[in-house]
Amino acid sequence: MATRHFHYGGQAVIEGVMIRGEKNMVTAIRKPDGEVVVHKEPLPKAYTGKLRSTPLIRGIIVLIESLVFGVQTLTYSANVAIGEEDAKQISGWLWVTLAISMVFAVGIFFLGPLFLTKLIGVQTSSGFFSLVEGLVRLAMFLIYLWLVSLMPDIRRVFAYHGAEHKAVNGYEAGAPLEPESIRKYPKAHVRCGGSFLFVVLIIAIIVFSLVGKHALWIMVLSRILLVPVIAALGYEFIVFGANHVDNPVIKILLTPGLWLQSLTTREPDDAQLVVSITAMKAAIAADEEVAPVMPEPISGQAV
Fold first, then answer.
1. What is the CA radius of gyration of the chain?
2. Which one of 4, 116, 118, 134 is CB 3.0 to 4.6 Å from 205, fit for a cystine?
């Protein structure tokens, strides 16, 4: 009988951790009174079917999945964190929130650098223009992360982010899922969404240099329409890197993304580790109830 193998991942939320399993999404939140509550939700088939493991297409699905689950779990965790545990249903504003978030992200981090590069008057070759634009984009992204990391509430979320990574790293190393066992593991992970975003920013430089310099409206349109393509390529790189992490060249290429996580993770305390472990154990248990055996490994769930 084949050994079951799945790459677990997730995200930090307000006072908790969400773990995305094979067939279920599990969120563990610490309530104001100190109790840890666990909410399990089966994943829609759109996020577990064959397309979810199809190269290139899976990157786009993961992007959509991350946005949907991100808003959903953050809303739920906010409700629980303020003592409204029963508020589990997400309102019809979910898709409006997602649309606004996407417009904001594309506008700031894809169109903003284009206009700034135009404004400073870079008139040389398309390759150099794309390089300058990409460096501006990267600088804006790093400054944004640094600024939000100064906020006390966000720093707590980043500590839960570190706790999530430690739980995943410990689980993948075969360590017992207990605070004293997983504390020694890194708070960074090669499949982290932060690493994915860093790779996306680098790939964007290459893709936009291939597009070249054109009329401004064409360049604006390319920055919007090519976002899914860049995300798909970035995800494939993360999958490949995670599956070849022992390769010296791959390890070097993954290093900047791991460095970036020094901005998006913090060392968690034992209480935060308990929450991440609770989410991980619940996700594993839920998946074992649904599918005790997997015939082939599934690679590349972004953490």
1. 20
2. 134
- CB count in 10 Å sphere of residue 210: 11
End-to-end CA gap in the chain: 28
Q: What is the pLDDT of residues 131-148, one digit of tens each?
A: 999 999 999 999 999 999
Helix, strand, coil content of the chain in percent (nearest 5): 65, 10, 30
Q: How many CB atoms lie within 10 A of CB 209?
A: 18
Q: Edge-to-edge, what's the strand order for the sheet holding 16-20?
A: 9-13, 16-20, 24-30, 36-42
d(CA 93, CA 4): 38
Four-point Cα dihedral 221, 64, 100, 225, nearest 10: 0
Q: What is the pTM of this model?
A: 0.86
Judge contact between 300 and 243, C-beta under 8 A.
yes
| pLDDT digits 0-9 by tens, 228-247 | 999 999 999 999 999 998 99
Angle at 125 between CA 144 and CA 120, to 5 degrees: 45
What is the rounded distance in angstroms from the CA atom of residue 289 to the CA atom of residue 269? Answer: 31
User: Residue holding tokens 């390529």?
Assistant: 233
Distance CA 249, CA 239 (A): 15
The Cα 37–Cα 31 span in angstroms is: 7
Query: What is the distance between the alpha carbons of residues 204 and 215, in angstroms, rounded to a whole number?
Result: 19
